[in-house]
């Protein structure tokens, strides 16, 4: 048999090459459309329009107080010279490049060409770099500041266990004011008991001048005896209202280490405190030397116990949300499967409505659903379960329906040939094919829900996320590190368990 030669006839351009180039100079992309390069031309139009729009937006943000564009541009250029100059030059190059590309395609001298779009991607990347305020120099230079809290998160186990404590303390009263008011009595030293004395035992508190600079108060010479030898001793201050705190000197909390006999001497500057306006007569404060030593065996600390209890809560939040999501999404998934619902216009209407609702619900993040659920049912894990369940129904409904649409139609046709109705077809032809993907998707969703339950706790949805954000707000990075490690360990274990389950059923 003789082979037949197929000739491909290209459609003629709507305009000549020179006209197409001129039109591209005036309106980039339109020239491509007129030489029948529709997709390429529309993509170029959209890209250049987006780039110019983003560029004008950044100029307006950088110089929004200027009234005319020229002033705005010059002000923006003075503030972000490299970015503004680069994008300006790139737009000019891109404009000319599009005109050249139009000529090459109009004269059939070139087909395709990815370099133009690679250049467009570079421009989008440059604009994205500026919009997202990426600063590699700051990331490098500020890393030493981030390392102390980061190191506590990476190795937080010092805060995971503690010991029972034993406290030794001694205090002495300090008069706020002059000696004329009658200073408090000097403490009597008792043999074998901690003792603290201040010389003098009266004076002025530190104060602030009109420029908020600290004016140092009286220096108290503290003498301590009969404490544990070679042990760190903290210095505490009690004001007239009974509030206790550790003063700071030279940027550090006040403390001293005792000598071999358990004695110490320390010069303390009287701290800054506000005196209540209603205070009358003699105002007495108190200074205390306190030794806190650990005794006994290690015991779990509160951060470890709280983290363990809330990680259990987090796991069950994910499990309950997954369970309810599976139960409610299975019937919905059949309504969202085109091959099941294509029988009539009524079923197709149900199909489109179901898919639309699922898309809307899935597009809203679980964090937003958690905020809504907190208003609905209050703070706690139930709000988290509601939020995760709603999102799981939409996500699993989509995955299940797409799995149903991809099944083998042979068994369906065979069952229908026997006269089976719609429900019997689902039971005996569809469901048996659905078990492996359903199991796989369900396990994957459980993994997602456990990870998401650590996040929705940030807005009061229960679980370990709520505890984690509290530790971070209190700058307790070691306790936060314990929570982070438990989250990572839990996700890893669940990943292993889900893989084993998937191997058995899929």
Give the gist of this structure:
By secondary structure, this protein is α+β, with helices and mostly antiparallel strands. The chain has 17 helices and 13 strands.
Describe this structure in words.
This protein has about 500 residues and is of the alpha+beta class. The chain folds into three domains: about 15-135, no CATH class; about 165-300, Immunoglobulin-like; about 300-505, MetI-like (MetI-like fold, Orthogonal Bundle), CATH 1.10.3720.10. The chain is about 55% helix and about 15% strand. It is built from 17 helices and 13 strands. It has helices at about 15-25, 30-35, 40-60, 70-80, 80-105, 115-130, 135-140, 145-155, 300-335, 340, 345-365, 365-375, 380-405, 410-415, 420-455, 465-475, 475-505; strands spanning about 160-175, 195-200, 200-205, 205-210, 215, 220-225, 230-240, 245, 250, 250-255, 255, 265-270, 285-300. Strands 1, 3, 7, 8, 11 and 13 form a six-stranded mixed beta sheet that branches. Strand 7 and strand 8 form a beta hairpin. It is flat and about 110 Å long. The model is unreliable at about 5-10 (pLDDT under 50).
């Amino acid at each position: 048999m003789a082979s037949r030669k197929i000739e491909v006839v290209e459609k003629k351009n709507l305009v000549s090459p020179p006209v197409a180039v001129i039109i591209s100079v005036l309106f980039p992309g339109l020239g491509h459309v007129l030489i029948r390069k529709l997709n390429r031309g529309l993509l170029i139009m959209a890209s250049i329009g987006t780039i110019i729009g983003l560029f004008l937006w950044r100029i307006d943000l950088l110089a929004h107080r200027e009234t005319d564009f020229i002033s705005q541009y010059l002000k923006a250029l003075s503030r972000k010279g490299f970015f503004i100059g680069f994008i300006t030059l790139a737009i000019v190059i891109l404009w000319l490049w599009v005109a050249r590309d139009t000529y090459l395609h109009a004269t059939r001298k070139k087909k395709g060409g990815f370099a133009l779009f690679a250049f467009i991607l570079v421009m989008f990347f440059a604009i994205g770099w500026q919009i997202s305020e990426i600063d590699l120099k700051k990331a490098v230079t500020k890393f030493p500041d981030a390392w102390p809290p980061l190191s506590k998160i990476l190795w937080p186990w010092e805060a995971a266990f503690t010991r029972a404590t034993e406290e030794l303390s001694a205090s002495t009263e300090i008069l706020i004011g002059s000696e004329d008011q009658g200073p408090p009595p000097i403490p009597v030293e008792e043999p074998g008991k901690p003792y603290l004395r201040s010389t003098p035992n009266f004076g002025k508190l530190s104060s602030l001048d009109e420029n908020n600079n600290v004016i140092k108060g009286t220096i108290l010479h503290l003498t301590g005896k009969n404490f544990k030898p070679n042990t760190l001793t903290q210095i505490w201050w009690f004001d007239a209202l009974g509030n206790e705190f550790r003063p700071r000197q030279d940027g550090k909390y006040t403390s001293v280490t005792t000598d071999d006999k358990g004695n110490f001497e320390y010069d303390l500057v009287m701290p800054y405190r506000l005196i209540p306006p209603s205070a009358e007569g003699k105002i007495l404060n108190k200074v205390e030397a306190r030794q806190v030593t650990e005794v006994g065996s290690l015991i779990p600390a509160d951060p470890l116990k709280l983290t363990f209890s809330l990680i259990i809560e987090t796991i069950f939040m994910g499990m309950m949300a997954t369970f309810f999501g599976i139960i409610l999404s299975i019937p919905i998934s059949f309504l969202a499967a085109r091959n099941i619902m294509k029988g009539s216009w009524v079923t197709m209407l149900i199909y489109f409505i179901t898919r639309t609702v699922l898309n809307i619900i899935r597009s809203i993040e679980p964090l937003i659903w958690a905020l809504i659920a907190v208003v609905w049912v209050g703070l706690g894990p139930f709000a988290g379960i509601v939020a995760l369940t709603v999102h799981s129904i939409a996500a699993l409904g989509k995955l299940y329906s797409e799995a149903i649409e991809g099944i083998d139609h042979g068994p369906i046709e065979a069952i229908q040939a026997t006269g089976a109705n719609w429900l019997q077809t689902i039971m005996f032809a569809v469901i048996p094919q659905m078990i492996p993907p359903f199991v796989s998707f369900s396990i994957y969703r459980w993994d997602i829900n456990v990870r998401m339950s650590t996040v929705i706790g940030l807005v009061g949805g229960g679980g370990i996320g709520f505890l984690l954000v509290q530790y971070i707000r209190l700058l307790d990075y070691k306790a936060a590190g314990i929570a982070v490690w438990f989250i990572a360990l839990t996700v890893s274990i669940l990943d292993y368990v889900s893989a084993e389950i998937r191997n058995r059923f899929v």
